Amino acid sequence: MQSRSAETSQSAHGAAMTTGRGVPAAGNEPLLRLDNISKEFPGVKALSNVHFDLNRGEVHAVCGENGAGKSTLMKIVSGVYQPSAGTISYKGEERQFASTRESEAAGIAIIHQELNLIPHLSVAENIYLAREPRFGLGGFLVDRKKLRADAKRCLDRLGVDISPDRPVRGLSVAQCQMVEIAKALSLEAQVLIMDEPTSSLTEQETGKLFKVIRDLKASGVGIVYISHRLDEMAEIVDRVTVLRDGRYISTDNFAETSIDQIVSRMVGRSLEEKFPDRTSSPSDEVILSAEGLSRGHVFRNVSFTLRRGEILGFAGLMGAGRTEVARAIFGADPLDAGTVTLHGQTLSISSPRDAIAAGIAYLSEDRKAQGLAIKMPVDANMTLANMEAVSNRFGLIDFAKHAKAAKDYVDLLNVRTPSLKQPVRLLSGGNQQKIIIGKWLFRQSKVLFFDEPTRGIDVGAKLAIYRIMDELAANGIGVVLISSELPEILGMTDRVAVFHQGRITGVLETKKTTQEEIMRYASGYGPAGAARTMHG
Amino acid sequence: MAEITDVSKQKSGALSDRKKDIIQKFAALGSLFMLIAVFSATSSAFFTIDNGMTVALQVTSIAFLGIGATCVIITGGIDLSVGSVLALAGVVAALAVKDYGMPVWLGMIVGILTGSVCGFINGLMVTKLKLPPFIATLGMMMIARGVALQITGARAVSGLGESFGELGNGSLFRIVNIGDDGFPTVVFPGIPYPVILMVLIALAVSYMLNRSVLGRHIYAVGSNADAARLSGVNVSRIVNFTYVLSGTLAGLTGCVLMSRLVTAQPNEGVMYELDAIASAVIGGTSLIGGVGTISGTAIGAFVIGILRNGLNMNGVSAFTQQIIIGLVILVTVWIDQLRNRR
After folding, report:
1. Rounded to the nearest 5 degrees, what angle is found at the Cα of B119, between the Cα atoms of B113 and B125?
2. What is the crossing angle of helices B193-211 and B235-261, to 10°?
3. Of B98 and A205, which is predicted with more confidence?
4. What is the per-residue pLDDT for A307?
């Protein structure tokens, strides 16, 4: 497995790596080098023998599926974790960072996916948080003038036009990211770790970010770039390292590899196996139809139908209104106008309880915040939406029925848990998702909205979730799949409703469409009549 | 491969979790037994049936309030008003008997319902007006105390008649022998009515939390209110119920306390809410919500009660007692934090 194909341009330290501690000529010494890094948590080996190195003025991407160990590796670099084994050398010296404070002081800055800014403070205050320039009363007061000027200088260096006085809460995600980068620059960072920096940026904002990255590169900063968006990497990435299941797989010059090759190394199998064969096929019978759904500016005049045996995709960019439509049908948010018909009956839904009683279920994109009672055990979560079925008329729980229901669905969905009493927070993402599915199956739901069901779930578990979706459809349950991952939409659905700014701009036959066509509709360029003509 | 490592992680996590749970339970119970042992050794009058009943009686008010507090805290709320509400309830019961000539039992029920109404208002403020529970019940704490003082003119209500004292001072199975000399000797002091009530209520609420759908929903709301709502749980109704329960138990506490004194004091019950919260917290209830048991709270109430009683018997001043109880709360919550750190 340990192929190392990047040694063409890195022969000097490639040799150094194999001998472990050898010190190559000063000029070739990488800025940062990790050798044989392993990290164990109680019961899990998160990383084993991972190699990684970063040169000055280089963008080095780290790729891998969720759970491959990317974050753990970066947490080791930034001092959040200490490695169980292996060495870190930084600027030619062997180092151990005991905390992020130490790594920051040494010039290693990390920009997390979830940005860590304080909304109520200004841009300048955020950049210099806990490092404010001081004066007077023994350094008790903040030197506001210097703070402002220093912050302005950092922002100018990035070429971004954000006033240092603005409170952060009014900034867009892209602007917040720039503030984070400015903060890193103010630290004189020489290593900048960026975790999924483009995940919530528009194309234009991404372009701006890349320009900043190129400038940083030119000034000699080494950048570790973690992203799922492989297609974007060609623009800025020099080398790419792939991790899988905590193991080192390869390092290549980006120009000498291909996205397919990277993906197959990440996944460890070819792409075709990522989706199961569909066993169900749509019939003409309509299960659910929505007509003219509107809510304020969030979505307008949304209509679609869902047929028996069908998996309907909701595609679109973030904020296009997909989740909002599903939540409104589920009664979690109010609806201004429109009707929802289920099996021929028009529903009147004002709360999730009404929707659940009617047989509609919504699986939130945020499992931990909205899907599970995280401290409660497997069985309690499995039965939570249908306590009537496991209790008598006095509201007392029948524990025999309760245990049987939980066990039935644990077995049916092949949930891996040591016991029914295991708190769900200790389960993996895939198993948590299965429990939520089980909860709605036990409730005898007729329509399930899956909102980003495979986010943060490893490959094997993804396949299991897809299989379950297919089986549900085959058993006559309506399935709506909301997903931002187009391959998932193309691999699993029969039709796709594409959302753009709160409207459905097109309903496409999955077999006849392409990623490009969906993207065109998602950006609002598709022909307007498509939605009506394609309706079942 | 990934899943196998996941499962092994779960197993080790579960084991240590369960161990920690047991340690926590035993830590509280163990320290309770340790207290009993220490006080028995230092004071000969401590480990007697008489004193046992005295402690039990003293513990009842903390326990009533603590049971209500536990339910509220499990949902992620807090009830600061119970000390004032119990004073208002007791005063209302006394006035109903004295000024309106109601029979004692009816006056007591009116008092208890006063507590329920206060709890219901707390619940509405939290669920409908969306006030933070801390603020809503802080307001109620001041208002209820103010009303209690207002309607009594800040004077104690006395002259309530002996029957008003029956609930607080009577006991079941009291055995008294009249000796040859005509003096009575108490063979068994009897089980005071409040103690019987405490046991019954603790069992009933514990049963409700563990066995009923309502109880399951209380834990679910505290564990994750959003997820509970999206699973079809009527979150507002559940939260409301816990405040009504807490208010009702405060009303009962008020009636019992005033009955013991056979006088209604509008200044009774100051700071009792903190004892109630302390008993819940010592018993392992998490202020973040989702976690807590009645058995734990009962242990917590007895830890506080026995500390007070035993320290009194050993002649420790009231001020020192406060310091010691404060330290006990800090240490137990710190142990709880250790348990939850991962």
Report:
1. 140
2. 170
3. B98
4. 93
Contact (Cβ atoms closer than 8 angstroms) between residue A58 and residue A251: no
Residue A197 is predicted with a pLDDT of 83
Q: Give the separation between CA B283 and CA A86, rounded to whole angstroms.
A: 44
DSSP string of B221-277, one letter each residue: HHH-HHHHHHTT--HHHHHHHHHHHHHHHHHHHHHHHHHHHTSB-TTTTTTHHHHHH
Q: Flag the least confident range among A70-79, A400-409, B68-77.
A: A70-79
CATH architecture for segment(s) B46-173+186-340? Orthogonal Bundle (1.10)
Domain parsing of chain B, residue ranges: 46-173+186-340
User: What average pLDDT does range A173-184 have in this prediction?
Assistant: 86
Could you tell me where the beta strands, DSSP code E, fall in A97-142? 108-111, 134-135, 141-142
Question: Residue B11: which of A43, A373, A374 has the nearest Cβ?
Answer: A43
Taking an 8 Å cut-off on Cβ atoms, the answer to whether B230 and A370 are in contact is yes
- Give yes or no for A422 touching B (CB within 8 A): yes
Residue A489's Cβ-side half-sphere holds a number of Cα atoms within 13 Å equal to 29
Which residue from B10, B220, B230 is facing A417, i.e. has the nearest CB? B10
What residues have CB less than 8 Å from B126, skipping those under 6 apart? B77, B132, B133, B136, B239, B240, B243
For residue range A265-313, what is the model confidence (pLDDT) as tens digits? Answer: 887 755 556 788 888 888 889 999 999 999 988 899 999 999 998 999 9
Residues of A in contact with B291 (CB under 8 A): 375
Rounded to whole angstroms, how far apart are CA atoms B296 and B293? 5
Of B9, B13, B230, the CB nearest to A352: B230
pTM for the full model?
Answer: 0.76
Cα nearest neighbour of B289 on chain A:
A375
**CB spacing of B7 vs A391 below 8 angstroms:** no
Q: Closest approach of chain A CAs to the CA of B1, in angstroms? A: 8
Most A CBs within 10 A among B207, B223, B286, hence the mutation to make, goes to B223
The two beta strands, A286-295 and A299-307, are antiparallel
Give the span between the Cα atoms of B90 and B87, in whole angstroms: 5
List chain B residues with pLDDT less than 70. 1-25, 339-342
Residue B188 DSSP one-character state: E
Q: What's the complex ipTM?
A: 0.78
Query: In this structure, what token pair is assigned to residue B338?
Result: 């250790």
Of B231, B232, B340, the closest CA to residue B287 belongs to B340
Full DSSP string of A336-384: SEEEEEETTEEE--SSHHHHHHHTEEEE-S-IIIII--TTSBHHHHHHG
* Per-residue confidence (pLDDT) for residue B12, from 0 to 100: 42
φ, ψ for residue A401, nearest 5 deg: -65, -40
Chain A contact set for B339 (CB, 8 A): none
Closest by CA to A459, choosing from A503, A429, A498, is A429
Distance CA B26, CA A26 (A): 61
Please name the fold of domain A274-359+446-533: Rossmann fold (3.40.50)
CB contact under 8 A, B227 and A372: yes
Backbone angles phi, psi at B51, to 5 degrees: -70, -35
Helices (H), strands (E): how many in chain B?
13, 4
Scored b (16 or more CB within 10 A) or e, A174-199 reads bbbbbbbbbbbbbbebbbbbbbbbbe
- Within 10 A of A433 (CB to CB), how many other CB atoms are there? 28
Domain ranges of chain A: 274-359+446-533, 372-444
Bigger pLDDT: A528 vs B62: B62
- Tokens 């164990």 appear where? A40
CB contact under 8 A, A370 and B224: yes
Contact A376, B209 (CB under 8 A): no
Would you call A330 and B230 a contact, using CB atoms and an 8 Å cutoff?
yes
